Amino acid sequence: MSSVELGPAFFLSVVVILGVCRLVGLALRGLGQPPVVGEMVAGVALGPSVLGLLAPGAEHALFPQDLRPVLYVTGQIGLVIFMFQAGYEFRTDRIRQVARSAAAISTAGILAPLLLGAALAWGARGRVAIFPAGTRPLATILFVGVALAITAFPMLARIITERGLTGSRYGSVALAAGALDDAVAWVLLAGVVSLARGSSGPLLLAVVGTAVLAVLLALLVRLRGRATALAGRLPTGELLPAVVAVLFLTAWYTDRIGLYAVFGAFGLGVCFPRSAAVDRAMGLFTPLGRTVLLPLFFTYSGLNTDFGRFTDPTLLLFAGCCVAAAVVGKLGACWGAARLVGERPGIALRVGTLMNARGLMQLIAVNVGLSEGIISPSLFTVLVVVALVTTVMTSPLLTLWDRLGARTGDPTPDTPSPSSVTSRA
User: Fold this and answer.
1) What is the architecture, at CATH level 2, of domain 3-424?
2) pTM
């Protein structure tokens, strides 16, 4: 397909994606699902699992292979813009209040699913066709653990934003824990890739690169006053390209070091100077990224997901075990860690529920595993199911906890209990 042909194909695909996302989102709203889940399900519906099965000619006509890289890159722009906005709106004044809880929750949310997933994959060796030929079994075993340890940080951030939880305590705890959780998980993923390749390069690059990023963001915080003054003197027409350039440079850097662009975008947003001028500049490009470009990202992986491979009963059983291990290892472990550090029962339960969502961050990870030859197509399908189930269950569970709390007279989850105040004193 030539570049001249890609233009019209891209415009048509965007119209179809936005329309289907809207329709699926409206259909799922009655089930308590946020629009982000509708976009995720719409992507699967537009791929080989539904549209490709019912009308393969239509799928190939709407989403030819040459077009998919364009959709991916455009969706990346939307995701980076959204995560920058989420970081910009993140209440840094509450970080100190939630740091202890976030660290404990993140640690539990990584170790428990990592161990459970690795043990499950080890037990499945020789029984389920999930190990690709020519790959070290240890790399596949560790990959399953890392995949279950991932939290869908972008999706978590969007659910928190859409439910108006950005300024809440459990929203802040979940955001901080989710960011730390995924940063560590992606470093671990780089380690697994290094093991599979027989080289320490990817892991070393991720560790060193993350340390350099932390230093640069700390420097930005120290210079925030000067940057704010400079931004105030620039007209919006000049400030907007400067903000976008810094954002894209940060996204490029974090991708190059083996982390994902969202972490650089979110970190930059947290540390970025706050001013009325910056607010005006963001008001010009964040709505487009959030409402038009972001759905392209959330549908891209769905276009590459094929449930047609899910015909083996042993694979179905293994998938069920993986879902159970994922929920127990993430929701259960994060809930337990939150209670141990003194968080209220309502906060602990909600944080565990939010951390349990894996979404497309896990889909991105499993695509990496598939492209590196670490996992088989069957294991890819299993992990996609885990991502879908754990994400779809998030909003209904949050609504359920709210209803149960209202019935039992449980105070607002944001209200700190005496034990939690004491533990942070």
Assistant:
1) Up-down Bundle (1.20)
2) 0.77
